[in-house]
Amino acid sequence: MEKHTGFKHFIKAFGYSLQGFKSAFKSEAAFRQEFILALVLIPLGLWLGETGGEKALLVASVLLLLLIELLNSAIEAVVDRIGTEYHELAGKAKDLGSAAVFIAVLILLSVWGCILIW
Prior knowledge:
DAGK_sf; metal-binding; metal ion binding; Helix Hairpins; ATP-dependent diacylglycerol kinase activity; mainly alpha; flat
């Protein structure tokens, strides 16, 4: 397999990223819902944030949720690839991924709450 470097590597990596986004959007309902939420919240955060820092925090908290959801989906895909039978560690991996998404939601809510309410 040919190893790409420099700009060609960047282009290949970009293509793989697009494949990942398409796959997540097609097969992951939670990602679709959060992506649609991001389409609303990111422009809203840029409009409602009063300073550059506030705008950055509002947008970053939304992007963090998408990031964690993608990682959770990746964990679930790997676990499902290994086998469909129940295994304690497989369940633990999926639960930990879900907990990470929950924390990302809490971060989003706390950032938006602190900036917009207090």
